[in-house]
Amino acid sequence: MKSLHDMPEGPAPASVSLDRLFELSEVLGAMMQRGVAERGLTTARAGVLWALFHEGPMTQRALAGRLRVTPRNVTGLLDALQEDGLVVREAHPSDRRATLVSLSGDGRALTAELRSGRDDLAAALFADMPPGQLDAFTTSLAQVIDRLKAVDPTGRA
Amino acid sequence: MKSLHDMPEGPAPASVSLDRLFELSEVLGAMMQRGVAERGLTTARAGVLWALFHEGPMTQRALAGRLRVTPRNVTGLLDALQEDGLVVREAHPSDRRATLVSLSGDGRALTAELRSGRDDLAAALFADMPPGQLDAFTTSLAQVIDRLKAVDPTGRA
DNA sequence: TATTGTTATACTCTATAACTATA
DNA sequence: TATAGTTATAGAGTATAACAATA
Question: Between A and B, how many residue pairs show a Cβ–Cβ distance under 8 A?
């Protein structure tokens, strides 16, 4: 019979998995950053475009909430994006304090490019993964996300 | 017979999986950031400690390579960490141009805390996942990392 | 001549606090 | 009185370029 000492301890499987997750996050983040940089964007600015693309026009306040960032920060990001002609600030129809932000034509086109680049990446990453494995992977990811949000109440979307 | 129009297109499974991956990265990153902030660290500084903890003392040059950051950047990070008494700069034994950086006792203790917090998180995240599923998940993660590095030559560690 | 780390400078993201215009 | 966005100020991370000491 094997005693505990016969099995080299090593890191727990859960820790290994989390390490992989962190590694993947890093590589993915770096890659995305280069992707947006190629189009003259930063990650933070791309995040603004992305939010507007997927949720439509909104106030700066809403944008700040969506991006989990201060209103002041949004002002700066929008100033830069507006100077590049990627977003448009308009008067809010009913609240004269508020500003309604939307994508310009250029902004929409650029974001669509980002989106399609992302789809290409997804295809390249998962093309040779059997459908069953991909399904299981996606399911596990969703589970971990739920678990993570449960563990850390601050981290909720 | 069903025509193509009968099946609502929807995003490809691969894109969904990538979206989940990005979501998980975000939540995980935010959580880690709060974790290090609680201990008076920033993500970048924690990265320095982490590298020294896992690879031992090294020159600033090596650190810059490891972190994929400019030497100038390392100078700034080390200045801050040194002021907090977490790292030590020593003369390099054979190259008088170079500086050998290592963790102080406090630095080592703090990093060990981070490490154990990470292990706790891993346990919390994966505790209720059946071993088989966890294995499959880890394997898929490794595959995707490999694929990602293959797709993007710049992203190699 | 090349390399190590630093000083000088600049840009971006981020935050808090005070202020203006509106609700 | 509270809210939307801005100005003012500050700190952190990052980069490039020029420079000193050393290889």
Answer: 169
